[in-house]
Amino acid sequence: MSCPPIRKILHLDLDAFFCSVEEQRNPKLRGKPFAVGGSPDSRGVVASCSYAARRFGIRSAMPTARALRLCPELIIISPKHGTYGEISRKVMSRICEVADLVEQISIDEAFLDVTMRPELAEQLARELQAHIMRELGLPSSLGVATNKLVAKIATDIGKAEVQSDRPPNAIKVVLPGTEAAFLSPLPVQALWGVGPKTASRLADMGIHTIGDIAVWPAQDMEQRFGKHGRDLFRRARGIDDSPVAPRQETKSISREHTFARDVHDPEQLHRALANMSSSIARRMRRSHLSASTVKLKVRWPDFTTLSRQVTLSQPTDLEANILEAAEVLFRRIWQTGRPVRLLGVGVSVMGPPVRQLTLWEAAPDESKITALEKEQRLEAALETLRSRFGDTVVWWGSETDSEET
Predict the structure, then answer these.
(1) pLDDT in tens, 161-191
(2) In this structure, are 54 and 127 located in the same domain?
(3) Which CATH number do you get for residue 257?
(4) What is the pLDDT of residue 41?
(5) Is residue 97 located within the same domain as residue 164?
(6) What pLDDT is recorded for position 252?
(7) Within the chain, which residues score under 50 in pLDDT?
(8) How do strand 140-145 and strand 171-173 relate by DSSP bridges?
(9) pLDDT value of position 47
(10) In the prediction, which pLDDT does 91 show?
(11) What is the three-state SS of the chain?
(12) Which of 11, 339, 351, 377 has its CB surrounded by the most CB atoms within 10 Å?
C-alpha cells in the first residue's frame, strides 16, 4: 500500500488589505501614515492601518481618537466595504484556479490545498503572490507548510520578520519534518487555542514557549486541561490534520450599529432596528435563505451588553417579520428614555428560502392574496429598486449619526 502524499498547504494573507486598496485609488497615500476606519467623533475604530502608521503604535481595532493622539498627522479614510468585497472576490477567484481546495476564512485570508499540484509548494506561493500583485496590484504574504496550523503561523512569522514602512510581501516556508522545531521557540500565545487565560495557567506551570508544551508530559497536560490539553500537546508538535474545507453554509447573519452619541429617542432606535432588519433580509434573499430565530443585542453606555432571542412560528426572509421580532425583544428589556450605546440584530437557524413572488407575478385571484404574499410582493419590488439604483434608494428614515461596525 502506497503512503499518502505529503500535504502542501498555503496560507494567504493580503497585506493591510483595506489600505492597499485605498493606495490603488489614491497613490499619494503610499508611504504615509493613514488608517481606514470610523470618525473619531463617532466612536469610530481603526479597521486597517498602513505600515507607516504602525510605526506609531497604531493597530486595528484601536479607537480612532486614540490613533490620532499617537499620530496627529494620521489620515483617516472612511471604509468602502462594497469595493473591498468586490476586489476580494477577484482574489479568491484567482486562488480557486490554483488550488483544488480553498477555504476562505475572511475577506483577506484563505487556506489553499495544493497537494495534488506537481510544482513545489514554495514555487506555487511565489507565482500566486506575483500574479496577485501584477494583476490586482495587491501585496500579499504566504505561509507554506504541511498543515493549516503551521502555515498560518508561518505567515505571521514571515510578516513579523520584515521591518519596513511598506507591506512585507513575505513568504515563509516550513519544510516537512521541521514543524516542531519551527514552533518550539515561539511564545505559547502563537499557538491556536491559547488565549490570555490559558497562557496565564501555562505560565504558572513554567511553560512559556510552544516547545515547553511539546516536552511536557501529555497525560499531565490532558489532566489539567482536558481534551483542550491533548489538542495543545499535538499542536505544539506541529500536528494538525484539519482539512482545507470550502466555506460552510451561512449559519447566521447579523448587523450592529454603534451610535455616535447615546440614543434614547424611540423613533431613532426604531429606525436603527428597521435599517438593520432590512439589510439582513436583503442578504438572506440574495443568499436564498430564510431564518427561524431572531436575535437582539443591546449595549448600554456603561458597556453592559444584553442578548435576547426568539424562535419564529415559521421561517422568514421578510424584513417586516425580523423587525417585529426585534422590536418585541427590545421592548422587553428597554425602559423608556434609557440611553442606548449599541444595537444589533441577527438571525440564525438558516434554511431554504420561503417562496417569494416576483414583482410582476399575478395571483390567480387578486382578492385572495394573503398578507404574506402582499409583503413578499412589496419586498420583491424594493429589492428590484435597490438592485438597479443601489441600497440607499429606499431606506428607513435618517441614520446620519450612527456607524455600522
Answers:
(1) 998 888 999 999 999 999 999 999 999 999 9
(2) yes
(3) 3.30.1490.100
(4) 79
(5) yes
(6) 84
(7) 355-370, 372-373, 376, 384-405
(8) parallel
(9) 92
(10) 94
(11) CCCCCCCCEEEEEECCHHHHHHHHHCHHHCCCCEEEECCHHHCCEEEEECHHHHCCCCCCCCEHHHHHHHCCCCEEECCCHHHHHHHHHHHHHHHHHHCCEEEEEECCEEEEECCCCCCCHHHHHHHHHHHHHHHHCCCEEEEEECCHHHHHHHHHHHHHCCCCCCCCCCEEECCCCCHHHHHCCCEHHHCCCCCHHHHHHHHHCCCCEHHHHHHCCHHHHHHHHCHHHHHHHHHHCCCCCCCCCCCCCCCEEEEEEEEEEEECCHHHHHHHHHHHHHHHHHHHHHCCCEEEEEEEEEECCCCCEEEEEEEEEEEECCHHHHHHHHHHHHHHHCCCCCCEEEEEEEEEEEECCCCCCCCCCCCCCHHHCCHHHHHHHHHHHHHHHHHHHCCCCCCCCCCCCEEEC
(12) 11
Instruction: Specify the CATH number for the domain of residue 214.
Output: 1.10.150.20
Question: Are 163 and 191 contained in the same domain?
Answer: no
Q: Are residues 284 and 190 in the same domain?
A: no
> Is the same domain home to 172 and 185?
no
Whole-number Å distance between alpha carbons of 243 and 29: 39
How high is the pLDDT of residue 249?
Answer: 62
Question: Is residue 249 annotated as a catalytic residue, yes or no?
Answer: no
The one catalytic residue among 109, 222, 375, 399: 109
pLDDT at site 44: 84
Total domains in the fold of the chain: 3
Residue 302: closest CA among 342, 347, 264, 335: 342
Query: Cell numbers at residue 154, please?
Result: 508561518
Residue 192 belongs to what domain range? 181-236
CATH number of residue 121's parent domain = 3.30.70.270
- How many residues can be counted in the chain? 405
Contacts of 77 by beta carbon, 8 Å cutoff, 6+ apart: 22, 29, 34, 35, 36, 37
Handedness of CA 248, 249, 254, 255 (dihedral sign): positive
Assess if residue 166 is contained within a domain.
Answer: yes
For 270-303, the pLDDT digits (tens) are 999 999 999 999 888 877 788 999 999 999 999 8
Asked if 293 and 219 sit in the same domain, the reply is no
Q: What's phi and psi for 224, nearest 5 deg?
A: -80, -40
Residue located via cell numbers 431606506: 395
